[in-house]
Amino acid sequence: MRKTTILFLWLWATLLLFSACSHKSGKRPSVRAVYYWATQFDIDSAKRNFLTRHDISRMYVRYFDVVADRSGQPMPNATLRFLTLPPNDVEIVPTVFVMPECLRGDNRLLAQRIVARVKQMNATNDVEGVKEMQIDCDWTASTRHAYNLFMAEMLRLCHSHNMRLSSTIRLHQLSQAPPPADRGVLMMYNTGDVANPDCHKPILNMRDAAPYLSRLNDYKLPLSTAYPVFAWRVLFRGRQFVGILHSDDDYPQLPTDSVCLRQPTMDDIREAVRAVEKRRSDANDEIIVFDLSNNNLKRFNTNNYEEIYHRGRSAGRSSNR
């Protein structure tokens, strides 16, 4: 009996040691996730195949934007329409984009309206089992205090409804104290100036991102990381930035205008994933692709996506699932 007890304790201690080493090395399997950033929610066969092939278990879905009207009052804009039901085997995280100028008013009331609207959209569209909400806002040092007040109320309301709250974290925000939230998502993109015709990699250039990552390991908030697979078609008139073309008729075009394609390469993304892995491997415990659209699914192949989800390493045989 004594030998059995000693053997059991030895096995238990070995298991604990192995678990601790695995946690420290950052080699745990990643949670695989995607953003869905559109005005219509439509999971067609191509998207469904992607979710299944790559074992996607979480989807961050943009529900609506909050913008200021002419009087400066916050109002919802570009609300998502559900054309298909959300997959029942994928966790949905409702995500709301908030313009910084909307933080100037009553932040408590703004938070209450956002939570109420998200819950109403969940009920209307049969989105069940929501465990988390996310706020996306490009706040700066001048709006940080207002954002923190707003997020403190959001955190209180989410917890009262048994939900977590997450916040997107842009690279420049790493130099600021974290906002009130249960966790954050590091947005590893939009590193350059899209309006500059000489900036050929405004979405992702690791030379621009590297200085911000020096602060990553000391950032006092649990993090996941989102990596870009999207492209921009940028319209220039001479050397003057006109806008980003989402469709050909977004802006009137002159014969002398030029449309430049800006997109990250697989080498860019691979370098970004490895840079985060080196600085803070736990931030890659959940890897999120931005974003799930049919155009983006054609931009890279299955092996490329598997490599992203394998923390920038070759996926081997599993890439052919």
From TrEMBL:
Lineage: superkingdom: Bacteria
Record's protein name: Lipoprotein
The species this protein was found in: Hallella faecis
Lineage: Bacteria, Pseudomonadati, Bacteroidota, Bacteroidia, Bacteroidales
